[in-house]
Amino acid sequence: PVVMIPVEIEAETMPISSKGHDDFLDAIGYKESGNNYEVTNKFGYMGKYQFGLRTLRGLGYKVSREEFISSPDIQEDAMQKLLLHNREKLRKLIEEYEGEVVNGVFITESGVLAAAHLAGAGNVKKFFKKGLDFEDGFGTRLTTYLKQFSGYELDLE
Predict the structure, then answer these.
(1) Is the model's pLDDT at 11 over the cut of 80?
(2) Are 87 and 113 within 8 A, CB to CB?
(3) Cα–Cα distances in Å, from 66 out to 37, 74, 128?
């Protein structure tokens, strides 16, 4: 005969970790430059978030390389403007796919905006529409950013 015995399981409680906007900026800054405001890479991208002059000009900044890398305030402002800009350009895709799995990747707003920072909004659109993955000069893939920077609560007001 089989005897059923009630099982008592004591589960450990895990603290709920909230990844916020500052955590996102710290994580992406670390990935891009080790959070170094003064670095310029071999391709000419500058600062904590590795901005190119073309992107800065597109956001309305008229600063020299020297002015940009010597000003953490300008860099943080530029990153916030870029996040807002990319969110607007990608708003429909974020609304449609957030919380879904696309091409094997779980989609969140923060992941999409990080991928746009790496590859540009146009390449993010190609990922969603054609399944194409972008790779930068160092071999970093758009899908890596979609995954690595997923799940942050961004403050973009």
Answers:
(1) no
(2) yes
(3) 11, 12, 37
C-alpha 77, offset from chain centre? 16
Model pLDDT, residue 157: 77
Per residue in 39-51, pLDDT (tens digit) is 999 999 999 999 9
* Residue 123: Cβ within 10 Å count: 17
Question: What DSSP assignment string belongs to 115-141?
Answer: HHHHH-HHHHHHHHHH----B-TT--B
Residue 96 dihedral angles phi and psi, to the nearest 5°: -75, -40
Q: How many helices (H) and strands (E) does the chain have?
A: 7, 2
Q: Is the dihedral of CA 105, 95, 113, 16 positive or negative?
A: negative
Instruction: Give the number of residues written for the chain.
Output: 157
Distance between CA atoms of residues 91 and 102, nearest Å? 16
